[in-house]
Each structure stands twice: as C-alpha cells, then as structure tokens.
Design brief:
By secondary structure, the chain is an alpha+beta fold. The protein contains two helices and six strands; from the N terminus they run E-E-E-E-H-E-E-H. Strands 1, 2, 3, 4, 5 and 6 form a six-stranded mixed beta sheet that branches. A hairpin with a 5-residue loop joins strand 5 and strand 6. The protein starts with a strand and ends with a helix.
C-alpha cells in the first residue's frame, strides 16, 4: 500500500499517528509508510486537529487544504491534501526530514 495516492483534485495521505510524543515529527519507515508523532493527547479530537495543522505547516499550505477523511478514533488516519500533487507531497515529506 502506498501512503500517498493521487486522487481527482487532491492527494490522499495515509499515516499512523503517535499521540503524546516528545515532539512533532514525520517518520518515514523502511517500507515507505508514514508515521506522524504529535505532542497532542488523543482526547476530544486534539490529536486530529494537531495532525491537520502540523501537516499544513510542514507542507507549506493553508490549514483549510488539509482535511481528516477517516480514522478519527483510530491511529491509522487518512488525510486529504489539496493544492499539491502526490510527487510534491512526497518530496516535501522527505526534504524536511533531511534538514
């Protein structure tokens, strides 16, 4: 399964979320799956909101361009990203990690 899929007009990003981490960061696993560590707790949607805000900042797009599609109560979440294509999302995920 590819964590980043190009859809009609948006990118669907599948990630595993680790709430209550020591810092916010994106981890690209050896199998190219994505994990996002967030400092927010998994209560009352705090981690979901933090995920959308963190991804928007990391990708350099407005917060309104990132929407949680599924997984509100799960660690595995699908997020819609508008305004970028799949290749741009992947490059931005990898580039920021190298710096």
């Amino acid at each position: 399964m590819t964590p980043i899929e190009q859809r009609n007009g948006y990118v669907l990003l599948t990630t595993r979320v680790q709430p209550k981490a020591s810092r916010n960061e994106i981890i690209v696993n050896y199998d190219n799956s994505l994990r996002v560590a967030l400092t927010a707790p998994p209560v009352e949607g705090e981690a979901n909101k933090a995920l959308c805000v963190f991804l928007a900042e990391h990708l350099g797009i407005p917060k309104r361009a990132v929407t949680l599609v599924s997984g509100a109560k799960s660690r595995v979440k699908k997020v819609s990203v508008a305004g970028l294509d799949a290749a741009e999302v992947w490059v931005k995920m990898i580039e920021k990690k190298r710096k």
